[in-house]
Amino acid sequence: CCELLKNDFSTPDFPVGNDLVLYISNDFGVYYNYTNMTRPWMIGNLKTDPPEELVRKVFSGDVPALNEAKKFTWSALASLYGDMSSDRVFSPDDFKIYLLNECAGRIDGGF
């Protein structure tokens, strides 16, 4: 996967799509299904945030983790967090999610 992304100079554009799935935590935090339920990935809170703001954030990807990741290209993320000698097996999309989650760890001292 690192090899596939080494020349990909586009930036992350998650999470748009018709099949978006959200997780709701026990304290009503809202998260994308491909993320960790940590502060950098939190979209908002069902009890405290206006519904319009939650919808805006969901479809724009306006969360700290994605805002951080958008500072880098896929090539840079693969270089920073990928391992060319790894024998792990990922699909390309799963590898991108792995890279996003690794990048999110930079925020607030990690997970």
At a glance:
By secondary structure, this protein is mostly helical. The protein has helices spanning 2-5, 51-60, 64-69, 74-81, 92-104, and strands at residues 22-24, 29-32, 44-45.
What does this 3D model show about the protein?
- The chain has helices at 2-5, 51-60, 64-69, 74-81, 92-104, and strands spanning 22-24, 29-32, 44-45.
- The protein has 111 residues and is mainly alpha-helical.
- Helix 4 (74-81) crosses helix 5 (92-104).
- The longest helix is centred in the last third of the chain and has 13 residues, at 92-104.
- The protein starts with a helix and ends in a 7-residue tail after the last helix.
- The model has no long low-confidence stretch (mean pLDDT 87).
Order of helices and strands: HEEEHHHH
Mean pLDDT: 87
Give the proportion of residues in helices: 25-40%
Largest sheet: 3 strands, antiparallel
Structural class: mainly alpha
Strand order of the largest sheet: 1-2-3
The dominant shape is elongated
Question: What's the number of extended β-strand segments?
Answer: 3
The amount of beta strand, in percent, is 5-15%
Residue ranges: pLDDT <50 for 5 or more in a row? none
Distance between the termini: 24 Å
* SS summary, helix count: 5
Query: What oligomeric state best describes the polypeptide chains here?
Result: single chain
Calculate Rg over CA atoms.
Answer: 14 Å
